[in-house]
């Protein structure tokens, strides 16, 4: 698990690594740029026309080093454009400018948008990185607008220029609209939110050699879960074992017109390792389950009151359940049992409609999508606010909240 960190924390990690590895700042920049170049050379061939647009801070220094490293790898069609509009240049930018001058790469310095060429193909955006603060003013706003207009594909270095990555309040975004952002050492939390799509269509991150022990010691409320974090937690089937020792799940869901939701839920449970799955559905839908997944056992929803929940290891309620009076009575009965349950879909909608949030037993799992979440907890100004709300509500209700989206947020109770 990697902790998401802020720009400020990243700066500390940068300082710590320089001091304790030890490594010179210019060498760390070189390492970062090598990682960036290694990644983008998988996507672009040596003949492509590449324009590297640079500011004069460290992000701009990265751009100059990237241009040089690409050139050394045989990329011959590179042009560097330096935006000569900032009040100062960082020391590492100055060093990299000298290093670049030793290679025969066309380099232009511009001050206005009309000096920018129109025929931009692939652009490497190294104008502004994590040091950007405030808002974009002229002539920078106009230059960036022109880059967005003329580029065929934009790779942003570390973050799209002009994006305040730690503040998702981008009502009128004016910065670079990247096709892909490759950030350093960590994914950026902001890219987990749908709002980020205006600034970057896709994102990746590369390791640049910052001290991981220090980084992981930095406080964070959110963590990026990787495949390797999950794999070890899955229960492996042991030789001579049988379905009876891998848990029995009861799913309450499905109606004639929404049986697919119950089927998909049951299939997912079996796929992820549950030994026995019983679905409680209207009797007329038994054959749907039997045909689509014969392992699934069935119980009649009409006889729900006679079912003893004790014989199941876990209970999930909601997929395709519907909002009928009968569905409401079943949700109410489940809530009264005071056992932790997985609440999904219509079970959540019923809980919102009936104002039963306070009745949810501790340690339950709530799995809302965006709209179900907002129905439960009210609307939010943006995704960052929604995520913070989810984090607080998980603590308050002592329930795990799984907020589903392109990236799913799992909020724990502590
Ligand atoms: N993480 C790491 O360990 C490593 C990080 N590295 C890299 O360093 C980057 C951070 O570099 P950084 O701190 O020099 O800042 P950076 O993004 O270049 O911006 C500074 C420039 O922004 C300008 N500027 C600011 N606000 C503005 C505004 N509103 N409107 C206009 N201009 C504005 C400001 O202008 P000035 O105020 O001087 O006029 C200055 O010129 C980081 O993103 C990554 O790429 C790697 O090199 C190595 C390892
Ligand atoms: K950038």
From TrEMBL:
Residues involved in (6S)-NADPHX binding: 58-62, 129-135, 158
Keyword terms, alphabetized: ATP-binding, Isomerase, Lyase, Metal-binding, NAD, NADP, Nucleotide-binding, Potassium
InterPro entries, per database record: Carbohydrate_kinase_pred_CS, CARKD, Ribokinase-like, YjeF_N_dom, YjeF_N_dom_sf
Boundaries of every YjeF N-terminal domain copy: 10-216
Note on how the cofactor is bound: Binds 1 potassium ion per subunit.
GO biological process, one term: metabolite repair
Enzyme Commission identifier(s): 5.1.99.6
Keyword ATP-binding belongs to the record: yes
Record domain YjeF C-terminal: where: 226-414
Top-level enzyme category: isomerase
Binding-site residues for K(+), renumbered to this chain: 59, 125, 161
Entry protein name: NAD(P)H-hydrate epimerase
HAMAP family per the UniProt record, alphabetical: NADHX_epimerase
One Gene Ontology molecular-function label: ATP binding
Reactions catalysed, as given in the entry: (6R)-NADHX = (6S)-NADHX; (6S)-NADPHX + ADP = AMP + phosphate + NADPH + H(+); (6R)-NADPHX = (6S)-NADPHX; (6S)-NADHX + ADP = AMP + phosphate + NADH + H(+)
Keyword Aminoacyl-tRNA synthetase applies: no
Gene3D superfamilies with a match to the protein in the record: 3.40.1190.20, YjeF N-terminal domain
Cofactor: K(+)
Function statement: Bifunctional enzyme that catalyzes the epimerization of the S- and R-forms of NAD(P)HX and the dehydration of the S-form of NAD(P)HX at the expense of ADP, which is converted to AMP. This allows the repair of both epimers of NAD(P)HX, a damaged form of NAD(P)H that is a result of enzymatic or heat-dependent hydration. Catalyzes the epimerization of the S- and R-forms of NAD(P)HX, a damaged form of NAD(P)H that is a result of enzymatic or heat-dependent hydration. This is a prerequisite for the S-specific NAD(P)H-hydrate dehydratase to allow the repair of both epimers of NAD(P)HX.
Entry similarity comment: In the C-terminal section; belongs to the NnrD/CARKD family. In the N-terminal section; belongs to the NnrE/AIBP family.
């Amino acid at each position: 698990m990697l902790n998401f960190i802020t720009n400020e924390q990243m700066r500390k990690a940068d300082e710590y690594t320089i001091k304790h590895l030890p490594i010179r700042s210019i060498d760390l920049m070189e390492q970062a740029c090598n990682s960036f170049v290694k990644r983008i050379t998988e996507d672009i061939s040596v003949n492509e026309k590449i324009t590297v647009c640079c500011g004069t801070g460290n992000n701009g220094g990265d751009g100059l080093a990237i241009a040089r490293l690409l050139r050394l790898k045989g990329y011959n069609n590179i042009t560097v454009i330096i935006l000569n509009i900032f009040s100062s240049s960082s020391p590492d930018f100055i060093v990299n400018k000298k290093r670049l001058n030793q290679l025969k790469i066309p380099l232009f310095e511009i001050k206005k948008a009309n000096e920018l060429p129109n025929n931009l193909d692939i652009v490497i955006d190294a104008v502004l990185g994590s040091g950007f603060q405030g808002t974009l003013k002229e002539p920078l706003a106009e230059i960036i607008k022109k880059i967005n207009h003329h580029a065929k594909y934009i790779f942003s270095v570390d973050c799209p220029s002009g994006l305040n990555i730690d503040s998702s309040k981008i009502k009128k975004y004016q910065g670079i609209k990247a096709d892909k952002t490759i950030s350093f050492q960590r994914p950026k939390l902001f890219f987990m939110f749908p709002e980020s799509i205006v600034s970057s269509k896709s994102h990746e991150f590369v390791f640049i050699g910052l001290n991981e022990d220090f980084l992981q010691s930095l406080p964070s409320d959110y963590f990026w879960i990787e495949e390797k974090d999950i794999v070890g937690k899955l229960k492996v089937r042991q030789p001579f074992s049988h379905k009876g020792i891998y848990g029995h799940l009861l799913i309450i869901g499905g109606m004639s017109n929404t049986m697919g939701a119950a089927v998909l839920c049951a299939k997912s449970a079996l796929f992820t390792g549950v030994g026995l799955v019983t679905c409680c559905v209207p009797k007329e839908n038994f054959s749907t389950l039997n045909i689509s997944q014969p392992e699934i056992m069935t119980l009649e929803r009409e006889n729900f009151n006679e079912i003893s929940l004790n014989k199941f290891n876990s209970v999930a309620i909601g997929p395709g359940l519907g909002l009928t009076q009968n569905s409401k009575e079943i949700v109410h009965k489940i809530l009264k049992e005071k056992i932790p349950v997985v609440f999904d879909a219509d079970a959540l909608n019923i809980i919102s409609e009936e104002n039963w949030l306070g009745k949810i037993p501790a340690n339950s799992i709530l799995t809302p999508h965006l709209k179900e979440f907002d129905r439960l907890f009210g609307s939010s100004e943006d995704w960052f606010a929604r995520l913070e709300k989810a984090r607080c509500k998980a603590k308050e209700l002592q329930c795990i909240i799984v907020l589903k989206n392109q990236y799913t947020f799992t909020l724990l109770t502590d």
